[in-house]
Design a protein that fits this description.
Oligomer: homodimer
Largest interface: A-B, 56 and 56 residues
Number of strands of chain A: 17
Radius of gyration of chain A: 21 Å
Helix content of chain A: 40-55%
Strand content of chain A: 15-25%
Largest sheet of chain A: 7 strands, mixed
Shape of chain A: globular
Distance between the termini of chain A: 44 Å
Number of helices of chain A: 12
Order of helices and strands of chain A: EEEHHHHHEHEHEHEEEHEEHEEEEEEHH
């Protein structure tokens, strides 16, 4: 059983169920999100996190935006209200590509509907928005499961796996990406041990990934990030499996800071290095990793542990959110559309399909 | 100006001045240690830490043990009291090689003195113990400065240096080992930037090394351990300089967990990797790193940040204190006796001197 990070409960007049991820692993608290202000706060404060999960949450946010409209409200006004809600929710996480993509999809569905139907009524619009949000949700669930099914063959019985950060159910609507592979292998009765980097500064590994794996009954060991190489040296790690945030046309991949070092250490020790990511992670407009901008996060994430300041006053902090793993260090990328071993632009293009390739690049 | 982690103040009736390292970098608190019970607690609770600093503290502990003896106390009883104090202080840190070495040296000096002099009096014994403790202190100070002088040539103007854990003044009686090199380069007017790994789980880098470098007016940037590889990739690091806890005959070196990974990452990026350590760190009775036992530290060091538990209940933790960097990854070992580039057993033996080599191995 994996956690349901984002789940709509009921019909058009239902609510969005969230897990309060800020309180994990200490407490497991479920929230009922009933208006867009509450959802804005939840996204902003990382109560709900992970690009796919935020995308799905945003989609349901638009259901919340229209569900309470007065039955007298005109269909044009309802559409306007939906667009305003999308702008508002989008400002909670301005760099969240999945969030904008999901809400744009619903907006354009709603616009088409209103334009095409002379006598569209509010209730029909509300149902359309819910149906589309449910579709986005279901696609995410299916995508996660498919990544797991595609990747589970890489986990052999008795192995040790290393993972970094959280690419699990808590980051998606389904059962995650990297962790989905482990959940599927576990379902097939394979026994294995997962070493989880705690993942400084925000500790998503220690807090969230360890919690998810433990819930699923998978053997889990938490380590500090600086211990991974020494584990590899001792032969305790057979493969590294992580998620990815953005993959360039040549296969270079941005993921949580620390992933690049792991890819070097894995190669040095002859260990397979897998990235698990939905096909929507590929950005073919970006030629190589050099062109992926790296977000610098606030210094206080490193400077403070809880309320305690751990560095002297006035000392500079360097806190990049991501790093870039070069394609040559990646054994395979596992997506819902298939697996690419030793990724190259040619192979990525083939997997995504010529049509998608054309759409994304404008090339023939 | 570097911090005086361990400094005797006054004559035979003086006290041992310590810096309370548990309170750094938040507060700079000086302690006056006036009896062996207080010193035992200080060592046990890591108020004073670092093998050389603890060795010097133990030596002065024996001064504290005999300074308050009644003038009527017989010289034999005083000697007995000194031995008991050494046993007691030794139990505060049973694996502290420097602690035992320093106290053994004083005990044996005191025994020789009592045996050789028919009418030795208590005051003479007290002075002998203080003189020997002062000699141990001074040797440590000289050793540190000499390592700095031997190593500063490896720091060029304008470079970026990475260090891990704390091999500074706070770990010795003098100005440290790895940091001594930086202090000497700084004294010569070289400008450089030091990136400091925070060094999970106990954060000696973020807390202590950053504090020392800042105090000295050296440019310092704190990073999380998992960021080092990405900094190297971007060309921001020209060399890695760390301490070492124990070095085998072939040059394999035990140091704080994480050092091994740094050595791999440095090699991958063509970056020099230096270890700074006193000659007493070499243990020629150990053929290679395989034979160095690795201490496992308590899980709670990883499990808790301050009072907050960051991992789910019941999850296993792996927390080795050290790892082993193979000699082939080490560009040079810098000791007070000289510098060994690309260390081999032959070169180490030559530097330590045939005599010492014979003493330590029993070989001719």
């Amino acid at each position: 059983m994996v956690a349901a990070a984002v789940k709509w409960v009921g019909g058009v007049d239902g609510f969005l169920g969230l897990i309060d991820q800020r309180q994990l692993p200490g407490e497991f608290v479920k929230l009922q999100c009933r208006d867009i202000e509450q959802l804005y706060e939840a996204i902003k404060t990382l109560t709900v996190r992970g690009a796919p999960a935020i995308g799905v949450a945003g989609a349901y946010g638009l259901v919340l935006a229209v569900q309470k409209l007065d039955t007298q409200c005109s269909i044009r006004d309802a559409l306007e209200c939906l667009k305003k809600a999308a702008d508002y929710l989008g400002s909670s996480r301005p760099t969240g590509a999945n969030l904008f993509r999901a809400m744009d999809r619903i907006k354009s569905k709603a616009e088409d509907f209103v334009a095409s139907k002379a006598k569209a009524n509010l209730q029909e619009l509300q149902e359309l928005v819910l149906n589309e949000a449910n579709a986005i949700y279901q696609e995410d669930v299916d995508m996660c499961r498919q990544i797991g099914e595609n990747g589970e063959k890489f986990i052999k019985d008795g192995v040790g796996i290393l993972t970094h950060c959280n690419a699990g159910a808590l980051a998606t609507a389904g059962q995650g990406t990297a962790l989905s592979i482990m959940f599927e292998a576990h379902k097939k009765g394979k026994r294995f041990k997962v070493y989880v980097d705690e993942t400084r500064p925000l500790l998503q590994g220690a807090r969230l990934t360890a919690w998810e794996l433990k819930q699923a009954g998978i053997n889990v060991v938490v380590i500090c990030d600086n211990m991974a190489g020494w584990l590899m040296k001792q032969g305790k790690i057979n493969s590294v499996i992580t998620g990815a945030d953005r993959i360039a046309a040549n296969g270079d991949a941005a993921n949580k800071i620390g992933t690049y070092s792991l890819s070097i250490l894995a190669r040095e020790h002859g260990i397979s290095f897998y990235l698990a990511a939905p096909s929507s992670t590929f950005d073919l407009s970006i030629k190589s990793g050099d062109q992926i901008p790296i977000e610098q996060r606030p210094s206080d994430e490193v400077r403070f542990l809880g309320k305690e300041k751990i560095t002297p006053d006035g000392v500079e902090i360097y806190n990049p959110a991501f790093d870039i793993t070069p394609a040559e260090n990646i054994t395979a990328i596992i997506s819902e559309k298939g697996t690419i071993q030793q990724p190259t632009e040619e192979k990525i293009r083939r997997m995504l399909g010529q049509k998608l390739w054309q759409e994304k690049t404008g090339k023939i």
